[in-house]
Design a protein that fits this description.
The protein is an alpha/beta fold and 443 residues long. The protein has three domains: 180 residues, FAD/NAD(P)-binding domain, CATH 3.50.50.60; 130 residues, Alpha-Beta Complex (Polyamine Oxidase, Chain A, domain 2); 93 residues, no CATH class. It is built from ten helices and 20 strands. The strands form five sheets. It has a seven-stranded mixed sheet, with helices on both faces. Helix 1 runs parallel beside helix 7 and helix 1 crosses helix 10. 44% of the residues are buried. The structure holds flavin-adenine dinucleotide. Flavin-adenine dinucleotide binds next to helix 1, strand 2, strand 15, strand 19 and helix 10.
């Protein structure tokens, strides 16, 4: 039987494995998943932190109800109830310079009634200002967000900037407008039903990783942890009518696996190891960091916000997420903070959020600071011309990962979609090969 080899058990690799394992005619025993780390999840992972004495995520992850591939993935892996969020498509904000509080709230239907309601739109910006958002839908692929909405626009500081860093992990002056356009088309343009904020109930692992691993194990999928792919060897026909090349050997740190042209290999690696292992990937390896500060408070926090997240304007902190007694602050597009000491950053952030959380500014709670230097590639317009397709020049080798050409920013939705696409493209190619073989046998 043809074998399926998926390398990398981040969200893209897990999604590819889950998609393949859920095809009834495929035997899970023919699917192999390899991961270099001792745990799956990649950039979407959780761990027990010794200082805080509880499980935390590497970073806050926000999804929207319109992330339809992520929702399907959770359905398949029986984890839909592990993603939570309000019925209202509401996003609380505060400006810490003057303690002003407001919510931006989308109405359920597609028509944007919310922009006509001053209690639901961004304060100090009128209907016409909000209509400017439509111009993002006409963004050219070469433009940044700031090319379309200038810094002096009333929505810039209170909506465009927070949206840009949260969705694209880049400030509007450098973020690809095409990526924002594509995200808005799948969320805001569909109305509030596609814009409800969603977060993991307990942890990223308990929502996106552990249930998927259980599903795969139940299906008989072979999971190899601690398996680092080092190189791929290729083979070619000597037949002048068939110029195809295919991967014929996978070399891991301590094993080699021979593969045939009928087997499928899905490389679901981050961009750096993928471009070392596979030739022909021409992508700038410039990264944009994300910093997260997890504060463990004395007791669970009960906030009266319409969602357990709050956008923060006017400081270094950008979003705070509340889960029980953990308050986690996210700072995206954070390359400039990489050289700042954790203590200094902690003090700045705690000064900004203590009041919002009703806590004493002078009592610093236990904290864990995580700076993810390689959270995503720098997603400006130039990257969009470099992202590789799922198909490679090799017959049995396919690419997945949030950095491949999904049309979406590097997000869970983008990673899952890339894994699905690789699984579906591989399946189609396997079906075509077996049809060609059958036709040749009958000829
Ligand atoms: C701090 C932070 C905050 C984020 N916030 C959000 C958010 O709010 N919303 C959202 O949707 N997304 C968010 N993201 C993005 C999201 O986490 C990623 O887009 C997604 O997890 C990427 O998945 P992936 O499978 O493409 O890549 P990865 O997660 O990088 O997975 C690749 C896997 O390959 C493995 N690997 C590497 N080399 C080898 C090798 N040689 N052999 C075998 N295995 C190998 C790695 O260990 C890893 O497990 C955030 C990311 C970070 C870091």
């Amino acid at each position: 039987m043809s074998q399926y080899h998926i390398i990398g058990a981040g969200m893209a690799g897990l999604a590819a494995a889950v998609k393949l394992a859920s095809i009834p005619k495929l035997n899970g025993k023919d699917i192999n998943l390899y991961e270099t780390a001792p745990q799956a999840g990649g950039r979407c992972r959780s761990f027990v932190d010794a200082t805080l004495g509880c499980e935390i995520d590497n970073g806050n992850h926000l999804l929207l109800s319109g992330n339809y591939c992520a929702m399907e993935y959770l359905d398949i892996t029986n984890a839909a109830d592990q993603l939570i969020g309000p019925d209202r498509a509401a996003f609380p904000f505060t400006d810490i310079r003057n303690a002003q509080r407001w919510d931006v709230e989308f109405n359920r239907s597609k028509f944007p009634f919310w922009i006509f309601d001053k209690n639901k739109r961004v304060p100090q910006a009128g209907v016409l200002d909000h209509l400017k958002l439509i111009s993002l839908m006409r963004a050219k692929d070469t433009q940044t967000i700031e090319d379309i909405i200038a810094p002096d626009h009333p929505l810039y500081e209170r909506l465009i900037d927070p949206l840009s860093v949260a969705v694209i992990n880049m400030t509007p002056d450098t973020a690809s407008a095409k990526l924002m356009r594509n995200v808005l088309a799948e969320t805001a343009l569909k109305g509030g039903r596609a814009c409800q904020p969603r977060i993991a109930r307990h942890s990223l692992a308990q929502t996106f990783v552990d249930p998927a691993i259980k599903f795969l194990k139940d299906k008989g999928v072979n999971i190899h942890m601690g398996a680092r792919l080092k190189a791929i060897t290729y083979n070619a026909h000597n037949n002048k009518n068939d110029k195809a090349q295919w991967a014929s050997e996978l070399e891991f740190t301590d094993m080699k696996i021979q593969t045939s042209r009928d087997d499928t290999i899905i490389l679901a690696l981050p961009p750096a190891p993928a471009s070392q292992i596979l030739d022909g990937i021409d992508i700038a390896l410039d990264y944009s960091a994300i910093a997260n500060l997890h504060f463990k408070l004395d007791a669970p926090i009960d906030v009266d916000w319409p969602a357990p997240i709050m956008g923060i304007i006017g400081g270094v902190s950008q979003w705070v997420f509340i889960r029980g007694s953990i308050a986690s602050v996210t700072i995206s597009a954070a390359n400039e903070l990489l050289t700042q000491s954790a203590d200094e950053l902690t003090q700045t952030v705690w000064n900004e959020i203590a009041d919002i959380l009703g806590q004493d500014k002078h009592t610093l709670p236990p904290v864990r600071v995580i700076k993810e230097k390689r959270a995503s590639l720098q997603q400006g317009p130039a990257l969009e011309t470099q992202r590789p397709a799922c198909e490679t020049g090799y017959d049995n080798l396919f690419l997945a990962g949030d950095w491949t050409d999904t049309g979406l920013p590097a997000t869970i939705e983008g990673a899952i979609r890339s894994g699905y696409k690789a699984a579906q493209t591989a399946q189609k190619s396997t079906a075509q090969k077996s049809m060609t073989k059958e036709a040749k046998t009958h000829a």
